[in-house]
């Protein structure tokens, strides 16, 4: 037992110590181990699973309207015939139940006449579909640690682009890949040994590549974050492998089982469909997490999902942010973004959310209208004293609904007042501008600058 404890302790020391202290060949293995730990932590904590469960309900509610809208758009471009085989491939792990569900869904879509719904019916139809995309965005924003949703106008235009343009491009690519197999020149190339093997391999890998490209499209455009193409592809390829593997396992152990039919009778099809939709969304969210960790590897350096800061570090981090933003403005540099500030300070971007919100609410910094937004001083740093700023940091969110210090304690109130007075005496009239100029000495006079 003691030997096992020593082994676990040693393993934790290797896993969570600085990567630079290990040999070069161990660093990728440590990074992979941290990634597996982070994914297991995100799944066991329940939030990813809860988002996947919520998306199951929204998908069932919005599936037929989504297919109806996509079918109407695709019909105008003449590629609507690709909808049924794609849906059949997505439901293939359900076995015979998937084929029956596919047939019923296509029947519903064929019977739905979008043109006779009227303005109210069409509005409800679009609302149902847009609500599904909104739920997907919320789940992806959680995976990407994004707390601010898109503005409503931007959200509406991008959702409509996904609905109208996305299906056309995707199904056009499917039609093109299918037509290549019947092309005379492609067939002649297949008769040549090397090209024939390569084309056959491409035909086998085509479903995996198409589903991976679809996932990459989601990872790049759905989260309210700037996602690099490489990170989106890494997450999409990993999710595509999980999709193929989970589909094979599902069809073998669950889709072909007769126990569900014996237990649930006619409801077995619905139960299987719900389980597969849940697994599919979970795979998609795991891929989004992999893309996030690939783009932000410093999130793998901690044992917890969100960085934990003590009151002292939170105070120091806020002062560092204000100082760096003021220094960039003083030196005539471009306004630093949250990503740049996080990289310069060596912390995760999520750790800067609250300090930046504090500085914005106290009109110390101001976010620019660029994308991504940069930060500039909201007022002259010469007018902001460090004593005033520290008082604002310590009292942040006290005015909101929450804890109230009751009953008043006279002794504690006196002690806090003396501490504040001592802090102001030590800091004097030291301003944010002086700190940004690397001048740590307060001016000789005792006049206090006001903010």
From TrEMBL:
<feature type="transmembrane region" description="Helical">
    <location>
        <begin position="55"/>
        <end position="74"/>
    </location>
</feature>
<dbReference type="GO" id="GO:0005886">
    <property type="term" value="C:plasma membrane"/>
</dbReference>
<feature type="transmembrane region" description="Helical">
    <location>
        <begin position="114"/>
        <end position="136"/>
    </location>
</feature>
<feature type="transmembrane region" description="Helical">
    <location>
        <begin position="262"/>
        <end position="293"/>
    </location>
</feature>
<keyword id="KW-0472">Membrane</keyword>
<dbReference type="InterPro" id="IPR036388">
    <property type="entry name" value="WH-like_DNA-bd_sf"/>
</dbReference>
<feature type="transmembrane region" description="Helical">
    <location>
        <begin position="156"/>
        <end position="181"/>
    </location>
</feature>
<feature type="transmembrane region" description="Helical">
    <location>
        <begin position="201"/>
        <end position="222"/>
    </location>
</feature>
<protein>
    <submittedName>
        <fullName>Ribonuclease BN</fullName>
    </submittedName>
</protein>
<keyword id="KW-0812">Transmembrane</keyword>
<dbReference type="InterPro" id="IPR017039">
    <property type="entry name" value="Virul_fac_BrkB"/>
</dbReference>
<keyword id="KW-1133">Transmembrane helix</keyword>
<feature type="transmembrane region" description="Helical">
    <location>
        <begin position="229"/>
        <end position="250"/>
    </location>
</feature>
<keyword id="KW-1003">Cell membrane</keyword>
<dbReference type="Pfam" id="PF03631">
    <property type="entry name" value="Virul_fac_BrkB"/>
</dbReference>
């Amino acid at each position: 037992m003691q030997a096992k404890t020593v082994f676990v302790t040693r393993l934790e020391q290797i896993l969570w110590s600085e990567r630079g202290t290990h040999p070069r060949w161990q660093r990728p293995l440590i990074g992979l181990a941290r990634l597996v730990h982070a994914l297991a932590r995100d799944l066991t904590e329940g939030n990813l699973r809860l988002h996947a469960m919520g998306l199951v309900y929204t998908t069932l509610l919005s599936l037929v309207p989504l297919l109806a809208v996509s079918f109407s758009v695709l019909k105008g471009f003449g590629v609507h015939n690709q909808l049924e085989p794609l849906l059949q491939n997505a439901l293939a792990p359900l076995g015979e139940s998937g084929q029956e569900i596919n047939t019923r869904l296509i029947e519903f879509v064929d019977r739905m006449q979008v043109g006779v719904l009227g303005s109210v019916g069409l509005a409800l139809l679009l609302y149902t579909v847009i609500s599904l995309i909104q739920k997907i965005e919320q789940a992806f924003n959680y995976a990407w640690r994004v707390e601010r949703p898109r503005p409503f106008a931007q959200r509406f235009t991008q959702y409509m682009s996904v609905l109208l343009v996305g299906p056309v491009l995707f199904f056009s690519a499917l039609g093109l890949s299918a037509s290549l197999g019947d092309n005379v020149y492609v067939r002649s190339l297949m008769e040549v040994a090397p090209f024939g093997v390569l084309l056959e391999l491409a035909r086998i890998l085509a479903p995996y590549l198409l589903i991976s490209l679809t996932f990459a499209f989601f990872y790049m455009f759905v989260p309210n974050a700037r996602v690099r193409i490489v990170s989106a592809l890494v997450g999409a390829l990993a999710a595509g492998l999980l999709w193929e593997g989970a589909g094979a396992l599902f069809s073998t152990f669950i889709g072909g089982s007769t126990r569900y039919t014996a237990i649930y009778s006619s409801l077995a099809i619905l139960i299987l469909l719900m389980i597969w939709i849940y697994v599919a969304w979970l795979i998609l969210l795991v891929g989004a997490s992999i893309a996030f960790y690939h783009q932000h590897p410093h999130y793998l350096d901690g044992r917890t999902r969100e960085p934990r800061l003590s009151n002292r570090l939170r105070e120091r981090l806020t002062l560092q942010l204000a100082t760096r933003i003021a220094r960039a403005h003083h030196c005539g540099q471009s306004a630093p973004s949250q990503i740049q500030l996080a990289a310069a300070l060596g912390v995760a971007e999520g750790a800067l959310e609250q300090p930046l919100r504090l500085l914005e609410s106290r009109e110390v910094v101001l976010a620019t209208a660029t994308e991504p937004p940069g930060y500039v001083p909201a007022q002259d740093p010469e007018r902001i004293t460090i004593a005033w700023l520290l008082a604002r940091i310590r009292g942040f969110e006290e005015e909101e609904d929450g804890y109230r210090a009751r009953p008043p304690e006279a002794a504690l109130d006196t002690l806090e007042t003396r501490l504040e007075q001592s802090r102001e005496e030590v800091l004097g009239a030291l301003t944010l501008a002086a700190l940004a100029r690397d001048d740590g000495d307060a001016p000789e006079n005792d006049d206090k600058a006001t903010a």
